[in-house]
Every structure is written in C-alpha cells, then in structure tokens.
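Lab notebook page, bench 4
Experiment: in silico fold of construct C2
Operator: M.H.
Input chain length: 599 residues
Purpose: comparison with the prior construct
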Amino acid sequence: MSNSVESVLSGGLVRTLFQPIVDGFSGSVFAVEALSRGPARSPLELPVTLFREAVAQKRLEDLERACITSALRSFAGLALDCRLFINVSPQTLLSWAGLAEWLVAQARELRVDPHVLVIEVTEHGNQSHDAQLAEAVRPLRALGCEIAIDDLGVGSSGLKSWSAIRPEFVKVDRYFVGGAEQDPVRSEILRSVVDIGRATGSQIIAEGVENPDQLNLVMDLGVDYVQGFLLGRPEAQPSVENGHLCRFQTTMPGLHADCAEHLATPVPAVPSYTPVAHVVETFQRNPGWRAIAVVDGTRPVGLVRRDELLILLSRPLFPEIYNRKPISAVMDTRAVQIDARARLEQVSRMVTGHNAPKEQDDFIITRGGEYLGLGRTIELLRQITAQQIQVARQANPLTGLPGNRVIHSQVERWVKQSRGFIACHLDLDHFKPFNDIYGYAHGDQVLMHVAAVLTRCARPRVDFVGHIGGDDFVMMLRSQDWQLRLAAVLEELAASLPSFHQQDHREAAGFDAHDRYGVHRRFPLISVSIAAMEVPGDSAVTVDAVTEGLLKTKAEAKARAGNVCLLATRSGVIDLFGSTGERAPEATDALPPSVRISA
C-alpha cells in the first residue's frame, strides 16, 4: 500500500461523486458536493483511507490538487446548473500559497464560473490557526468563491472558527441531526445554530438527513439547506431535478409572517463601481429613497445614505474630489445585513444592538446571501408591536398562555408533520365550589399558579403549554423525558394546591359548598386530573382523534378521587403514577365545547 497513493496520482485514478444539497425553501437542488473516491474495489477506495495514507506519505496537497481537478472536470462535463462544494483541508489552505491563482486558472480552462464554487473547509485539521485561515480564504473570496465550514461540532471545531472565517455556509455535523427527532438536546443545539446563522448572515446546512422525521425536524427548526441519503446518495451523475423535498412533505416550509422578508422594500442596488455623481442623481430622481445598497454582483457590500452623502458633498471642493470616484469609496461597509428568514425578535436584537440606530435608519436584507431589499427600523418597530398585539389577542388574558386558537393550530401542525407527542389535558377538581367559597380573585391565583407550574416543567421551545379557559389547561410534550416532567407536574400540584385552602379546611380535608344542582354538601380539597394520550407519529392520526381520545381519558380520570394522571395508549389506559382512590363523588360528564380544540 506504500506506493498506492503515488499510483492513484500518477494514473489519474481519483474519481468524483456528487451528492445534492437541497434548498429547504424551494425544494430544488441548490448545490452538489464533490466527494472524492479512490479506485473502485481497491484498498484506497474510501476517502478516509485514501487521505490518511496521503497524509502519512506527505502527499496531501498533491491529492487535494487531483481531487479538485477531477471535481471541476466532472462538474463541467455534466453541465450542472447549481453551485459546487469542494472540500479543502486547513493544512492545504495554509501551506498552498498559490491555491487561488491555480484554482481560477483551472476553472477558466474548464469553463467553470468561479462564482459557483464554494470552498468547504473541513474541520478535521488543526484549528488553532483560525486567523491565518481567515486570511488564507481571502484570495478565494476575491475570485468570487464562497466559503463553507464543514462538520461544525466535530473535534476542536466550533464558534471560534465561525467567528474568524465568517463563512457564507455552515454545515452542522450529522451527529446533531441523527437522532435529533428523539433527543431534545440535539434539536436545541440545532435551533441555536440556526439562530446564530440568522444573526451572522451564514446559511445553515443540515448534513446526514436520513429519514422523514429528521427532515421534518430540521425544516421546522429553520435550516436553510439539507443534505443526506434521504435526498440523494453520492453518484457520478446526480439527479438535480426540482421537487426533492416534495417527495417527503405535502407542503413546503414557507416564511413565517414574523420574519425579515416582510420588511424588505425593493429599492434597487447600485454596483460598487458606480460613480458617486450617478448615485447623487439617483437620489434626486427618487426623493423617497433614504439609502441605497451597494453590491458586488448580487451580494451587498455596503450602504450609502442620502443625508450623509449630501453632507459630505456640501463641503468645499468635495464634489470635484468625489463625483468621479466609485461609490465604494464613500459607502458604509459596516451596515447591518440581515437574512430574510430571521425572526423579528432576532432582527430587533441585531438592529438595536448596532450603534443605537435611529428610527429612520435603513438596513440591508438578503436572501441566500444576495441582495433582496432594504428594511427600516421604524417599520420593524411597527411589525413587532403588531405581532405583540396579535399574540395578546390569542393568549389567555389571565395567564398569558396561548389560547384555544393557538392550541388548535399547534396540534394540527404536529399532527400534519407526523410528529409523535404526548397530548395532555389538565382539569382542576372541585374548582367551581372552591370559587364559590373563596371568591374569584383567590381562584385566579390558583390558575396562575397552575400555569406557572406547567410552564416551569415544560422544556422551552420543545414542549407546548396552553390555557383553554377556566381551569382547563393543555400540555403537549415532545421531550424525551416527558414522563419525568409529567410526574413533576403532578407531584408539585398535589403538594401545593391544598395550600390555597384555609387552615381549617386543610385539617378537615374538605369544605362545604353548594354543588351545581344547589345541594349543600362536602367537597374534597381541590386536586388535579390529568388525561394524557400517546399520539403516534403516523399519518393515521387526526386532530379529532386526539380530541376524542382526551375526552374519554379525562372522563376516566375525573371518576377517580384525588390527584391522578391516566395515559391512553393503543393498548389501553395506564395509571402512570399508581394513583389510588375511590370513585369521585361527582365526575364531569364531558369536556366543555372549547376543549374540543376548535378554532
């Protein structure tokens, strides 16, 4: 094997396969990644073995040169209309000073536009030279290439590399994708990476997507692109037809109503070489424009503001000095750039955290790194205010939890996505007579306490808590440790609810009040009945089926005295925590109409 690498190189035996990278918004193939292989059915066929041997024989740079050449030649031969991701190790980037010039020469010879190339920096090398790597990729960017960081989260890779290199794309290692549909910690990490991508302008690619559950999860978390065996295996001639995601999803994920896309005003940008005098004329012809974005090709590189430009040119001799200069000489290169899919709260943090902007300030909105339009701070504030008003309208006025309409939408969404979860309906026992004796103000304190307990026991952004109305609450759990969380709810409420009674009622373990028929009788202390239902992640489930299942289980739970939690499964109803007790003196006949999760 010692001479095998030399044989591969001298014989031109490197092969290139391509794996598609799919746009999570349109479902079409956005790019292909070039994956190198050694001779078929040889000891060096697999890339791990091939590159390990090249490193041992100090031929890594030669092998990478051969891999890039093969990738460019194969890509050109297929005439693919998409971007091309090419892997380059950090060692090669740091040691090969002439890489950029060689690459552009190869691309021109093979008639490949350098602007479609994405140099993917593999994260398996020594990452202690992040500043040098950032400098090494600068010439590649100058040629029009984009940069990606591969396998974010492997070994020493992480936020330091991201911060130093400022890549256009970040590929999250398959470890955080595989099993994320069952592991809330991994899904939270993915969500955080997406949030950072929105804030920094990097687009996130989820690698290793191998089943529809993982695909639905990463789409739900908002990744920009997806890659994996589910969408296409490495092939010499990859399929790049549209509709890759449509095979697995009935509807494509769209933009949320609360994202930066809806703030964009389509003010045309100007190329960076445009003379200053021409930009002044443009402002004069369009008095409503406060700013104009400056682009290099389709990518924004700065912003020029009307007032600042006119003030600059009002100084003596400055028009003569600047009018013929390119607008890039006077533009603001630090202008805020925000991805179109960023949520409004993210936009607010980025804009308000940037030199305390005025309400009239403009910022740049991009889609896929390309210029989309301009946003304005005052419009952002209006949208956030409108969003807060809308949320308030749909929330329960007492607890602030999502109300019936939002609950219905959430159940419908998870059911349509075939996302398995535990649906729970919580109802306080004997709450009406409690209100009659203690008063509604005291009853409201109980409801706010229940809301606080449920919120505290749920995992943020993974589980869901809602307040239907009165003493009826909904809790939907996707956390892997859902049973522990449900046990915590039952335990805490069982221990704390009696404290809302006065001392003599606690000592007597009950109180006297009129029932719904006006009969004066003894009631136990308030307790909680929890009806839970295991909602499987399959297409056979409907929202109505969830509602009916909870109806039946709740009737059984209310028929038992004390604090109880029953779980309905396909095989029957289970008393989760071994509650005991005789039949309750007064069981609720049916849920109120609002509990049927109707819009």
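Observations: The mean pLDDT is 84. The longest strand covers residues 15-23.
Next step: discuss at group meeting.
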